[in-house]
Amino acid sequence: MTSRLPSETYAGRLASVREALRHDGAAALLAGVGPELEWLLGYAATGLERLNLLVVPAVGDPVLVVPRLEAPAAREAPGVASGTLALSTWDETDDPFALAASVLDAAGPRRAPGARLLVSDGLRAAFLLRLQAAVPGAGWETASSVVGPMRRAKSAEEVALLRAAAAAADRTVTGLFAGRLVGRSEADIAREVRERLVAEGHDSASFWIVASGPNTASPHHEPGSREVRAGEPLLLDIGGRLGGYCSDITRTVWVDGGDGVGPDETFRHLHGLVEEAQATGRAAVRPGMALQDLDRAARSVIEAGGHAAHFIHRLGHGIGLEVHEEPYLVEGASDVLVPGDAFSIEPGIYLEGRYGVRIEDIVVCGDHGGDVLNQAPRGLAAVSGR
Ligand code: ZN
Ligand code: ZN
């Protein structure tokens, strides 16, 4: 995934992490392939069996341990290209875990007994076990305590990428709903979703839920051979990545097949409730409010409409370099929204075997309220599909 942020952004993030490590009393942060590495260096390495490991000590210079054959690719990452980061390459017959340990050794206190090492959430268990054997006596914790809050607060340049991704997702759903749908399989429409996501500006497509008729009641439905018919709902929940940042949008429409087979009473009722719940959630966004209170605000609309038991998931999830990341809008989450939080608001109602409706937008928490990134129409729409 091509980073579209400048080198200075990454240098600033590295500096902030090192300061946070010192403040926290941790010895070093170790990031394997994954969103932490991407956030710190703009390096979206391929996570295979060879160890890539960014070692960020609280004191001393960061080093990227990288297989020699991947070093040219690593050097192109904006966080590496600036030259502020040393590469330590290993050959096929070397032991990369011993190399990582020697990098940590370069400053003695980091391997002092009980030194706290913070590892990225997605570091492979097999890598972690080898590192633990190579650095005995250290204490191991997850890095999200330090990096998580930093990744949550999106900068203006990150919001710009999220906005561009959201706009591309908007165009993808509106374009699809304007085209032929009736008689096509969900899998065929999903193929068009992937093509359109890229054609509209994403670097890649990430997911493509296409659910027709009763399949709309399965929130994470896998598109299959079922053909879309006139006189039933169609739900799209799709997203891709643009400059590393994710889009995620859901719209549910009624396919009337051009014959005016309009939505029935049940679907109208469900769609109306979800639309009102989603609008209530968007309007309620304020910095300082508890995450669970935003969930409650939207959920109360669906509860009042008699469908509490059919809203079977949290209201939303954070989004950034990952399509699901902190913060999570869910009952029990008492920490608060902060300006720069980017997250989905996606209430749904699911009547198993019959209908489901979900409407989802990405929203950024501003100083006074929510900045809604998606603009595709949300209202009850009957599309021809012919
Ligand atoms: Zn979604
Ligand atoms: Zn989502």
Could you describe the 3D structure shown?
With about 375 residues, the chain is α+β, with helices and mostly antiparallel strands. About 35% of the residues lie in helices and about 20% in strands. The protein has eleven helices and 18 strands. It has helices at about 5-25, 35-40, 70-75, 80, 95-105, 125-135, 145-150, 155-175, 185-200, 265-285, 290-305; strands spanning about 30, 55, 65, 85-90, 115-120, 140, 205-210, 230-240, 245, 250-255, 315-320, 325-330, 340-345, 350, 355-360, 360-365, 370, 380-385. The strands form five sheets. It has a six-stranded mixed β-sheet. Strands 7, 8, 9, 10 and 18 form a five-stranded mixed β-sheet that branches. Strands 13-16-17 form a three-stranded antiparallel β-sheet, covered by helices on one side. It is elongated, with a radius of gyration of 23 Å. The two termini are about 35 Å apart. The mean pLDDT is about 95. The site of one zinc ion has 5 residues, from loops.
Strand content: 15-25%
Radius of gyration: 23 Å
Low-confidence stretches at least 5 residues in length (pLDDT < 50)?
none
Major beta sheet summary: 6 strands, mixed
Strand order of the largest sheet: 4-3-2-1-5-6
Give the helix tally: 11
Helix content: 25-40%
Average per-residue pLDDT, rounded, comes to 95
Structural class: alpha+beta
Distance between the termini: 36 Å
Q: How many strand elements?
A: 18
Q: Helix-strand pattern, N to C?
A: HEHEEHHEHEHEHHHEEEEHHEEEEEEEE
Shape estimate:
elongated
List cofactors, ions and other ligands: zinc ion
